[in-house]
Design goal:
Largest interface: A-B, 39 and 39 residues
Strand content of chain A: under 5%
Radius of gyration of chain A: 19 Å
Oligomer: homodimer
Helix content of chain A: over 70%
Order of helices and strands of chain A: HHHHHHHHH
Structural class of chain A: mainly alpha
Shape of chain A: elongated
Chain lengths: ~190, ~190
Amino acid sequence: MARYKSGIATQERILESTRGLLGEVGFESTTVKAICERAHIRAGSFYNLFDSKDQVILTVVREAIQAVDPDPEGIGSDTVGQLAQTYIDFILNERQMGRVYLQLALTAGLTDETLRRRMLRHHQHRVNRFTDALLREHPALTADEARTRMQLLIAGLNGLAYHWVLDPEFDIRSKADILVRERVGIA
Amino acid sequence: MARYKSGIATQERILESTRGLLGEVGFESTTVKAICERAHIRAGSFYNLFDSKDQVILTVVREAIQAVDPDPEGIGSDTVGQLAQTYIDFILNERQMGRVYLQLALTAGLTDETLRRRMLRHHQHRVNRFTDALLREHPALTADEARTRMQLLIAGLNGLAYHWVLDPEFDIRSKADILVRERVGIA
DNA sequence: CTGCTTCTTGAGTATTGACTCAATTTTATA
DNA sequence: TATAAAATTGAGTCAATACTCAAGAAGCAG
């Protein structure tokens, strides 16, 4: 769509605006007008580069999901601790995107069944990666036992992230470390 | 405001509509028009009974928070297991309200600082109740240790609820039991 | 520098949102 | 059953929404 330099730059400014707005004011208040004002462009430019508001939002949403699950094709040499660390880093460092990610299952999924399925697939894939990692560290575990443990770990991490969104003072990192140690056994 | 029987009935139908919509389609799509259609009334009746859309939504939101923390003045004779059970029952039996509750911290809190503070207070209160219950069961624990455990338990429960919203097949109850047993010690 | 593409703008449209109000009907009660 | 309060309606207002389009400005290859 964008071919000239300025077009590409504008596209990026629009995405950056959208990321910021979704994280700061939520889906409901992320309007085309707000996106354009933040990006210092008029609505016409927006629609020269994107087909619709939903398209931009979906682009950002995809980014958020990917950020939680980088290298989905990776052979998987990570440890459970590293996977958990990556998630907590994402939540702490990219707060806006973290909020978008957490909101997804609860809100976006309500009106858009496709998005709900995408989130569900992502979640199951995530459980699988954690489970594979745990089995690499503890080959003696049964697959079921490992899976249950990782479901509980991921639920715990999501719950901690949820808590942290409410209360930025909350020390999510040390709590996450406790969870990992419990679920993996002291490494 | 409402005095006659029919007014009270209408008020309840509006609240019921709002509860349903918030749970099924989320905050964004819960419009006055949708509420009125579902309640089989015109907008004028709505505004005869409520001052604004926000007022109804806030009413339902308060209900959702209260449902998770019934009897806030209670002397506190519950066990940790009972408190956890109450939450899981709420999530499973009142699915719509459960969704509203989970959405609150992530979405409503973004644009309304008052609501965010209310949720935060509620959350801290909840941690306190769980902690008190645990200390009653295990007086030997330090307050800090008990508190950390209960923060992790509540994070876990919220995470499980979050997972269940995505995937209704997920067996949240048995997983919650595991968490309680771990955090309390086998009762 | 020419000519074609892309970008940007500004002034729109159509729709939907929350909310209002005068007029009418319904309800409870004295 | 007369009456005042309350409930309901339907036809509105006004602002904000997503989105469009013709025309001019800017970018770039030959």
